Every structure is written in C-alpha cells, then in structure tokens.
C-alpha cells in the first residue's frame, strides 16, 4: 500500500468514527451499558477463537526471539480473558460521566447557567503489545460517549483483529454503529503518523508505550496529545520518621511490582538521621533481592550498596534496582526531586506535619503522598474504577485518567428572553 | 539575526520563564495580589509614556494605510488605559484558584485524598494588534500562579515594549522575578514557530487572532494549544415562539456588536411558522441597518432580503450582515447547525420545553442558549470575572477561559503508612 492510500484509508476510518460518535453522544446510559454487557458476553462466547488468534501472535513473537515480560504482556489465557470481561462489566456499573453537572448558578441577568459534562468526541489510542488495552480503552471510551480509534502494535495483530470483531459485534447487537470502535490494521510508523494528523476527526490522542513512541507521536501530532511518560518516583525519609513505616513504604514501593510506573526508583534520606534510618531500610530491600546504588554517604552506612553513577539519578530502572542518596534535609530532597523527578509520584515518610505540608505544597508532581506508598497512585485505588493511563502532562488532566478525563464540557443557558 | 540565534534567544527567555514560574507557584495570594496592584499603579504612573509609545505605533499604522476598526483596536487613550488598570485591580479581587479543592475523599485504605488546583506553569500568548491583551494576559496568568510569555503583533511593538516594562517593574517591586512576564521582541512568523516548539519550557500556547495565525500555530506547535477559532452563531426561531422575544434576541445578537465572536451570523426559522415570525424579525433587523441574505422561502416573505449564496451558510460576517434560512422545524435546524456551526454559541427561541431540551442536548457547541442572547457567552457575563478568550477546542477547556482554566491539578494523599 502506498503512503497516499494508507493516509486516505486512515482518514476515512477516522471520519466514520467521527460520524458514529455524533450518533452515540445523545444516547442514554442504558444503551451504552447494554453494549458493554454484550462486549463482556462476546469475550466469553468467543473465548476459543480469541485464544487461538492470541496463540498465533505468541508463536510469531517466540520466533522473533521475544521472551520474559514482553511475551507475558502479550499472552492471554482463560483466566486473563475472564478478568478482562469482568473489567468491562465493572465499567458498565460505573456512573455515567455524561450529563454530570460541574457547576450550576443563576446569573445576575436571571439566566440559569449549568456547566455539564459531554463526550470528548473521538479518542485515538496508540499502544504496544498488551491486547487487553484494546478492550479496556474501547469500553472506557464507549461509556464516556466517545468513539475510539485503536492502533495496537504488530506483536498483537491477530489478537487485536479478533477482539475488534467481538467489539463491533457487541455494538451492532446493541443497535450502535460498529464504527464507534475502529482498529487500524496497519502497524507501521507511517500509520501512526497519518493517524495523529487527522485533526478534523480526532479530539485526543493517547500514546501508551515507550518514550520513543510517545515522542514520535508528540512530534507529528496535529491533534491534542495527553502523554503518559515515565515515572521516576522518589521516597524521602525525613528526620525522625518511623523506621518501620519507612521500611514498609520502601519495600512496597520498590519490590511489589518493580516494572510499573508507580514503582520507586530512588530513596532520599535526611543526612541528620540517616545513620538511624538507612541501615534498616537497606537491609529489608537487600533481603528482598533489591540492588542498591548509593552515593558516598549511603555506602558508608550500607557497604552492600554499589556506587551510584550520575546517570542513576532520575533513571527509571523498572527493575529490582534502587538509587539511594543522603541529602541535606527537606531542602535537599526538594532540590533533588525538582531536578530529577518526572512529575509522576513523589512521597515523604515523616512525623513532622509542617514538613509534610511543605513537601505536598512545593513538589510539582501529578501525585504527592505523605506516609503512603506510591502504589496508591492508581485509578482503581483512587476510586476511579478504571483508568486509561496515568497522565504526566499537565493540560486537560493529570494523574489517573478515568471516565471524567474522557469528557469535555458544555455551557447551557436557560433564560426568559434576556439580552444585553 | 539568524534563525539559529533567534531560536536560542527565545529558548533562553522561555527557560527563564520556567524557572520564574517555579518560584511563583508556592507563593501566597497576598504576594500575587500585591503585584497586580503594583501593575495597576504603574499603568497610571506611566500614563504619559505609554500614550507616547502608543502614538508611535498608531503613526506607523497610519503610514501603512491602516484604518477603521484595526486602527481603533490598536489605540490607547487615558480612558482606555484607566479601564485596563481597573481590570487588573478586578483580577486582584477575584478568588485565588490555586489550592482550590476539586474533590476530597477518604479512600478505602483510609488515606485522605484531595485533588487540588495548582498552576499550569508557563503559558504563551500569541496575539495581534490589541495592546490591552499584554496587560490582561499577564494579570490573569500571574493570578493563577503562572509565568507568561507574550508575543504581540508588530503593529503594537512600541506599546507592548513599554507595557512590558511597567509589568516587570511591578513584579520587581513586589519581590517577584521579572522573568514571570516576558515579551518577545521579535514579531515575525519565524519567532512564532520557534516559540511554539519550546516543549521543555511551555505548558500551553494560546493563539488569539485570525484563522491563519491559529492554523500556523497548530501546525507547528510541539506544545499543547487551546484554540479560539471563529464564532458562526445561529439563532433558531421555533414554531410558536414569542415574536417580541425573537425580535429582541435577533437584534441584540446581531447588531449590538457585529464584529465579535458571539455575534449571530445566521437566523433559522421553522417553515411551519415563518410567515408569522419572520416578517417582524426581518423588519427590526432591516431598520437597524442590517443586510439580510436569505434562502428562497425567506425572500418570499422578506422581499428586501438579497439572495443568499451557498457560501453564506457557515460564514462569519463580523459585520451588519445576517444569513436567514427557513428550515424544516427543529430537525432542520439541528442538521443545519451540525453542518455549518463552528461549535461556539447556538441559541433557540421557543416556548416548547421538550424541543428546548432536545436542542440543548443535541447541539454540540461550547455554549447553548435557550431564550437568551448569544451575547451571554462571555467570561464576565458567566461570572468568571475576566477571561483570556473563548476556547472552541474541546480538550482541557471549552468556552470562556478564566482563572480556573489556567490551572491544572495535583492529587494529594495523606496516610498513616499504608501499603498495598
């Protein structure tokens, strides 16, 4: 296919999604929830076929030499498929964000004003391996009254194709246009470039994946982008903090799931209290199989720590590796975080309420936690029910993006003939 | 200056604004309000100098042959300058959006969660003629805790230069970094292109001006853009509507200020009642000096109407010209608006509450008015106090952008050692 044909086909597909979104926007909650339940039923009914197609992707991946975590992300099995179906049913149970009143007031002119939530329109998701994203993103966008255009990775080609079929069957069965969820069958970069330039048809692009993909999308987009960049999360252990709590927060933050964006990547410890705090925290991390990379003063207290390189500050290890630095109190921690943090999640362990307040006030990140694990920066934990990702960009939304983040607003005025 | 030097100078200026914004973000309301009052005082103290510099711009404009509305937008006089100063004092009186709690909840884990408003960071404004925007944008951004980078048009070069001086003096006098409000001294397109690519330093770009400028910015931006496109606003006169109200809404919507974005550009009338409604409404408009361009059925009822061309539907006249079309009831009006509306403001005049509801529900626009003039789609009227523009894009904000629209959010967690 030539680039011109590719661009035209993608433009047509996006235009159809736009038309379908206009038909969905005024539909009521019951219609949308019915389609979500049909989607869950379809996932169960076509289980065999889905697993067969997924096996083709897995086989191809193995032949390319893919192993470990990457292969695991791609793999579906009956239990995972069931949990995806349950996830869709849970989205159906969530309140409908559309029509929600953000603000209501009677204006000086006597006009009744309401600012209400309405669907965004058409959302494009660009993502890698995980086929569950195909279903989750479709379900969230549908519930918020949006059409979705999905461009998954080549690794999941067969899985995404059959999942797209299940989704469009569910839409048809619910008397909704199947164009509401479109899967782009082209997996090369040219398709991404063509997609993110459809400014007439798309309202938002969400790239999920490695930094290179996100930068590529940001570079070429003519459509607003919400970025989900890396999480370089810090935990600062303050003078006088509870050492048992510090141990728990550090071990949970690093070791419960090292490979995700709310994992700790760096521990900061107040120099005035490091001798009391650091050996115990380090011992627990080491016992859990974590490699420590420390500054000179860390290594004086924790001989097992390797020497940290300058490049270890601000690095997202996504592994059982943690950078450790002794700093000059809160001031030193704030400076380090301002310089090396990625604006995702930052935490402090402290017993001092004024330093806690200052940390929360001055740290510039999507989520700031006092005496709580960075793991709570998660849509489910924060009560959103489901999330499409955690936004590290600042415009429109920041942090976990649930249904509300997939809407925009409309100002509604009801008067009795007022002019001005 | 070479392009490379220009880009470097703009990058430096944006980086300084970023550093200044970090210093401003944690400052309290009193500091910001003090700076705003100093700004208003400075405008009054330097009145002579400001008017002198503005006279240089006006003289240059006259020599280029500029006339009428364009010249008027550029001109300052003592009364206008005083009203700009009063506007800044009014912004100081508005509540501080920063720190406002959007949502507060105790999570299942016992953690106290708050979602609060924080400054966006650094906002770039790109605009044409009007020098008052230099002051208003600076004041709004400062109040919301942001730095601002201003790139005004060449027409206002001298005016903007002296206003920039007044603003930075006010910041210094209030012990705030003068880099918080930076005026870019380069007025060519190359400077715009360099500016909108400073993704490391800018969080938002707001272009204000003609469609060509907005498209240029959108095309080249690597920073999120909120667009303020045109307003092609419709008023639909429904079967059975109050003809006196229809006359008032049409005359106010078109003739009170034909040249701004919330002005009516097209009147739609239900065919079933056009004979009763249209002649009176048309007579009032014609009496006010408005040219009417009508469809065939309009011209049968209003012989004074000229024949509308196809290109008159969806056209922003910004003048004493109004397109008029007889349509097949509400359905016909909704179709016309979906096809030709610009998503800015749409109004209906009706006595039927179910058709009113359907119009509000189905019309996709930033503001939808029932029995109220489109003129109420305005920051001051909607109670925002002041606005930086009316957004016609959907992401982040839609409609009049006041202080809240210049903030983002932060999730704050307070726990007692919770892990998961």
TrEMBL record, chains A, B:
Q: Which UniProt keywords apply?
A: Amino-acid biosynthesis, Cytoplasm, NADP, Oxidoreductase, Proline biosynthesis
**What residues does the Aldehyde dehydrogenase domain cover?**
8-285
Record carries keyword DNA-binding: no
Give the matching Pfam families: Aldedh
Q: InterPro entries, alphabetically? A: Ald_DH/histidinol_DH, Ald_DH_C, Ald_DH_N, Aldehyde_DH_dom, G-glutamylP_reductase_CS, Glu-5-SA_DH, GPR_dom
Q: Return the protein name.
A: Gamma-glutamyl phosphate reductase
- In short, the EC number is 1.2.1.41
- Supply the gene name: proA
Task: Report the main location listed first in the record.
Answer: cytoplasm
Gene3D superfamilies assigned:
Aldehyde Dehydrogenase, Chain A, domain 1 (3.40.605.10), Aldehyde Dehydrogenase, Chain A, domain 2 (3.40.309.10)
Which organism is this entry from? Pendulispora albinea
